[in-house]
Design a protein that fits this description.
mainly alpha
Length: about 200
């Protein structure tokens, strides 16, 4: 074998090894990133379901005589703010996620105050449409929590993949940045009671 072939073969093998590593990293990162995007879509779908239910709930409550306008206005404004906060899951930043979380938390807080206020309205408490919407909201809140948890679960393998050495070198070069996790909403350590004892009058 000619001596000049040895370095050529070594260089070719190194180039192939680097290509294989880069291809494997990129394809895995793309797949994991798509899983994250899908999970984020499920989060948004769950929040959209809640927003739709809140619209119906507000219309039902509006029919109650002398119901506090300020409480309804707070819910309507919080809902509007929550629906205006959008995020691109491929470029999500901790600041964007925090802003999204705050908007949704503000809506949760306003909704909680609305539901607590309903206690003073026996006719509204016995309204079948209201009771059905309340049950659906409770179910949707559980769905939101599940979607957020699954989003965090999808983030973990992606972040591990792009942050491990030597993958982190390619991640920076190919613009695969780590993605932020969902944190608890502000005040989440305090339980929010959206259930009512309808036996009380």
């Amino acid at each position: 074998m000619k001596k000049w072939l040895v370095p050529v073969i070594i260089i070719a093998l190194l180039a192939y090894a680097f290509y294989s590593w880069g291809k494997g990293f990129n394809n895995t990162a793309v797949q994991l990133s798509e899983n994250v995007s899908e999970s984020w879509g499920n989060v948004q779908t769950s929040y959209q379901r809640r927003n739709d239910l809140i619209g119906n709930l507000v219309n039902t409550v509006k029919g109650a005589a002398d119901f506090e306008r300020n409480t309804l206005t707070d819910v309507i404004e919080a809902r509007s703010k929550a629906t205006q906060t959008t995020i691109d899951p491929s470029n999500i930043t901790p600041e964007q996620l925090k802003q999204f979380n705050q908007a949704q938390g503000g809506l949760s807080s306003a909704l909680s105050r609305l539901l607590v206020t309903v206690e003073r309205y026996p006719d509204l408490k016995s309204n079948q449409n209201f009771l059905k919407l309340q049950d659906e909201l409770t179910s949707t809140e559980n769905t939101i929590q599940t979607a957020r948890t699954r989003y965090n679960e999808a983030i973990k393998p992606y972040n591990i993949h792009v942050k491990k050495f030597p993958n982190t070198i390619l991640a920076g070069f190919l613009n695969f940045d780590g993605k932020p996790y969902f944190d608890a909403e502000a005040g989440a350590e305090k339980p929010v009671d959206v259930e009512f004892n309808f036996d009380k009058e």
